[in-house]
């Protein structure tokens, strides 16, 4: 799972717009955006460059990306990302 730091998510509506933009990228399995922390968790096998383009087209800027340490908790650990 990737953790993205995104600029431009100011409220729940914009977070939903960001989720929808990322959900449309081939290879994305689940997305969970949090406008309060300016972060988005993305599950799937997709190049970060494709995510950056989708965010840009939706009016956001990708600041940073990294592997989410929480994604290494093992099977059955649960998570909050919404399937797409």
Features of the shown structure:
alpha+beta, Alpha-Beta Plaits, 26% helix, 84 residues
Characterization of the model:
The protein has a single domain, classed as 2-Layer Sandwich (Alpha-Beta Plaits). The protein has a five-stranded antiparallel sheet, covered by helices on one side. The model is unreliable at 72-80 (pLDDT under 50). It has 84 residues and is α+β, with helices and mostly antiparallel strands. 26% of the residues lie in helices and 33% in strands. The two termini are 14 Å apart.
Percentage of residues in helical conformation: 25-40%
Q: Rg from C-alpha positions? A: 12 Å
Report the uncertain regions: 72-80
In the CATH hierarchy, what is the architecture at level 2? 2-Layer Sandwich
Number of beta-strand segments: 5
Strand residue percentage? 25-35%
Number of domains: 1
Q: How confident is the prediction overall: mean pLDDT?
A: 87
Class derived from helix and strand content: alpha+beta
Q: Give the strand order, joined by hyphens, for the main sheet.
A: 4-1-3-2-5
Largest sheet: 5 strands, antiparallel
Query: CATH topology, anyone?
Result: Alpha-Beta Plaits
Oligomer: single chain
Number of helices: 2
Order of helices and strands: EHEEHEE
How widely separated are the two ends?
14 Å
CATH hierarchy, class = Alpha Beta
């Amino acid at each position: 799972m990737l953790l993205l730091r995104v600029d431009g998510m100011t409220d729940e509506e914009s977070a939903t717009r960001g989720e929808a933009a990322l959900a449309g990228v081939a290879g994305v399995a689940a997305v969970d955006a949090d406008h309060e922390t300016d972060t988005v968790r993305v599950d799937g096998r997709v190049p970060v460059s494709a995510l950056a383009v989708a965010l840009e087209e939706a009016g956001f800027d990708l600041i940073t990306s990294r592997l989410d340490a929480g994604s290494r908790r093992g099977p059955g650990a649960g998570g909050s990302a919404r399937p797409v």
